[in-house]
């Protein structure tokens, strides 16, 4: 039986709901229900008592719950070991990178060690929480993400190692061609913005560090909400609203005259770029890369504010 099927079964058992289990497994409820039916068809028996709340395994199957957990744990360990040996044999490293970092900062970070170390890099781009999950499940050897200044200043957990690679401004930008329209809106007390979901990392930064600095008389109109910084950037270029984005991903558009940097009139804040890995159990190549990343983090940073 496939590992993901066993994980699906445990998700239902642990949440007591097909809906909650689908959310945990990052699939829609109809798709998850079809997967559960496929598992039951494969086994040849119904596994769940759908009449009880919360949903649980049928009594005849329930006795195997601990065995299922043991199998999941052992299969994950085996999968990790096979991947680790494969990467070690091929001098291969997997990096999980937050989307905005993938398109801006990651190339320079990878260049810092790939020129001196013979290594093959697989770069996996995802949102911040998904990247952390890849690291914690050992599907990635290294994590590149943004952290708030407070997070970066705090001590890391014992099971993690972190290198701060410098700060980056989280800036408001808007289409240069639409500045007249934006000024008119602002004069009426209205500020059209591109927002992030409140449960996303940049959504929390936007709501907790940027919004409190907006003048109280301004009516903030959330024109579009997106979890993707590159989408927010494109909406700003199109003149839909003001977007707050990491400076590095807006740099080319500002230099090309497509975007205008509004940090002189609207609030901005700082983000810290960090490299994170699990503590202990590293290969020689991974330790060499970590040393190079440490050196990269200590190199002089470019000026925060450019024109």
TrEMBL record:
Residues 1-60 form the HTH lysR-type domain. PROSITE patterns: HTH_LYSR. The keyword Aminoacyl-tRNA synthetase does not apply. One of its GO terms (molecular function) is DNA-binding transcription factor activity. It comes from the Bacteria. Keywords: DNA-binding, Transcription, Transcription regulation. The keyword Transcription regulation applies. Coiled coil: none annotated. Belongs to the LysR transcriptional regulatory family. This is Quorum-sensing regulator protein D. It comes from Martelella mediterranea DSM 17316.
């Amino acid at each position: 039986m496939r590992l993901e099927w066993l994980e699906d079964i445990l998700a239902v058992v642990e949440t007591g709901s097909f809906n909650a289990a689908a959310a945990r497994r990052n699939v829609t409820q109809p798709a998850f229900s079809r997967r559960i039916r496929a598992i039951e068809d494969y086994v040849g028996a119904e596994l769940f008592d759908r009449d009880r709340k919360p949903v649980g395994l049928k009594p005849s199957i329930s006795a195997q719950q601990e065995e299922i957990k043991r199998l999941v744990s052992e299969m994950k360990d085996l999968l990790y070991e096979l991947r680790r040996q494969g990467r070690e044999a091929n001098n291969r490293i997997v990096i999980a990178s937050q989307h905005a970092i993938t398109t801006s900062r990651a190339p320079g970070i990878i260049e810092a060690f790939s020129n001196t170390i013979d290594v093959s890099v697989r770069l996996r781009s995802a949102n911040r929480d998904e990247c952390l999950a890849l690291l914690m499940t050992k599907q990635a050897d290294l994590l590149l993400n943004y952290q708030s200044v407070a997070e970066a200043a705090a001590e890391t957990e014992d099971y993690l190692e972190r290198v701060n690679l410098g700060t980056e401004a989280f800036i408001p930008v808007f289409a240069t061609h639409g500045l007249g329209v934006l000024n008119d809106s602002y004069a009426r007390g209205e500020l059209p913005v591109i927002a992030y979901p409140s449960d996303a990392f940049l959504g929390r930064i936007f709501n907790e560090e940027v919004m409190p600095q907006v003048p109280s008389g301004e009516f903030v109109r959330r024109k579009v909400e997106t979890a993707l910084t590159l989408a927010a950037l494109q909406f700003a270029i199109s003149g839909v609203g003001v977007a707050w984005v990491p400076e590095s991903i807006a740099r080319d558009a500002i230099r090309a005259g497509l975007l205008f940097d509004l940090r002189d009139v609207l609030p901005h804040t700082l983000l810290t770029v960090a490299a994170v890995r699990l503590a202990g159990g590293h290969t020689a190549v991974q330790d060499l890369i970590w040393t190079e990343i440490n050196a990269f983090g200590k190199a002089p940073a470019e000026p925060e504010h450019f024109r």
